Every structure is written in structure tokens, then in C-alpha cells.
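Exercise: predict the fold of this chain.
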Amino acid sequence: MEDQKNWHEVHEEDLTFGDRLSDAVANGMGSWTFIIVQTVIVLLWMALNFVAFINHWDPYPFILLNLVFSTQAAYAAPIIMMAQNRQSDRDRLQAQADYQTNIDAKLEIEALAIQLNNMEVEKLDKIINMLNEMRTAPAK
């Protein structure tokens, strides 16, 4: 029997470099590690700008920090949306594969039910024949 690839393997093979990159970025940005590291960086940024009496590179109200966040959001949103679209594609492929599995299982169960029914009919026919033979046989 030839090895058939499942829907997941086929989907993985079809991913481009950009697809893999956006999935990795979305996974990274959707993690506690990212949130913790970003929080530490923001706190350090704000603390260093408050403490530095001379040479504030981004004095309060932290306009440069806001610009960095705006730029990050401008790139993050479409990248995350691309990853979500691919997740929708994966879900659709999985649902189609599940549906086909259910159809195949239904057909197999129906075939088994017919087989069992035929076996029961054959058994009943044999029993009826045996009873008919017993009735017509001369009594000893």
C-alpha cells in the first residue's frame, strides 16, 4: 500500500517562507515570554529616561516609545492576520478530512450492517428449513 500523506503534511509542504515566518512571529508575539520581555524593556526605557537628568533620548511623555509601539502594531497586526488566515485554512482542511473520514466510516458501517443482516437471514432460513424438515420427517 502506498503511503498517503495526511492533510497536515500536505498543508505543511505548501507553506512558503513568508507563511512560516509569519506563523513564527505570531507564535512569538502571542507568548508570555514576549509580553514579559516587552514589559521589562518598557519599564527600563521609562526608568532610564526618568533617571537621566542629562541626555534624555525620549523625555516624558515618551513620544519615541509611542512611535516604536505604533510601528510594531502596524507590522504585527497584518502578520498575525496572515497567521490567522492560515489557521482558518488548516481548520477547513481538517474539517474536510474529518468529513471524508466520517463518510468512509458510514459506508463501511452500512456495508457491515448489510453483511450482518444477510448472515441473520441465512441463519433464519436454515432454522426454518430444519423446522420444515422436522415437521415433514416421519415420526419414529
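Check your answer against the key: The chain has a mean pLDDT of 87.
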